[in-house]
Amino acid sequence: MAGIRNQTPVGYVTVFGLVALLAGCTNNGLPLSADQVPLEGFVPSYVQEVSNDAALATCPPYEDRQTERSDPSNDDLVAGPLRYQGLAGGYDLYQGLPATVDSDGIAYYKIGVELEPESEATVAIGGSAREYASILVENGRPEGYAEVTYRSCSDTAPDTVTWWVGGFLLRGRDSACVPLEITVAGEETKTFNIGFPTGACD
Q: Are the C-beta atoms of 82 and 185 separated by less than 8 Å?
């Protein structure tokens, strides 16, 4: 996958491109890091497809996916209990260049998403952007989804968040202004126009 973000959120672990520790233990063909070895030795499916283009991502079975909560900054995209660190002003790549498009015409923008305890939030690609943009979530299908609902772990401490490896992909282009529609239970849907990379919405 191309387009690795140059600023990994605090507490996040880069999982792509590491040497596999267990034979046959992979994540969509990608090796698992030491912290990603399943707690009970086998990877259960914590990403469930609920419709043709939507998924539910529940509590990841990895020790490193529950991390201490940090205070959000003005650079973070925050919608209630959900946060993408550093995404408020767009996806910041080196010198503002777009992600590299691979041989299949796909550009990957990797970023984790975190959620506070006992919470659920849905992130959806808005409008016509669904024709060329998708949401990636670890353990989900490689082509991504138009909509992903995140449900945090239920047994975490109050000052701990659950986070998922993932990001976004673009098909047939290396940049776009993508509307993200984020819905938290009991609240109105909020739409954020996010540049992939920064400046694509200008």
A: no
Angle at alpha carbon of residue 83, lines to 50 and 105, rounded to 5°: 60
What is the spatial distance between Cα 37 and Cα 84, in angstroms, rounded to a whole number? 24
Domain residue ranges of the chain, discontinuous segments joined by +: 26-196
Tokens of 183: 């819905």
Predicted model pTM: 0.78
CB 177 within 8 A of CB 193: yes
Structure token pair of residue 63: 């020790």
Q: Which two tokens stand for residue 152?
A: 């945090």
Residues in the chain: 202
Q: Mind listing the pLDDT tens digit for each residue in 78-105?
A: 999 999 999 999 999 877 789 999 999 9
Long-range contacts, stretch 40-48, CB < 8 angstroms, 24+ apart: 43/139, 45/139, 46/139, 47/137, 47/138, 47/139, 47/140
Largest Cα span, the chain:
47
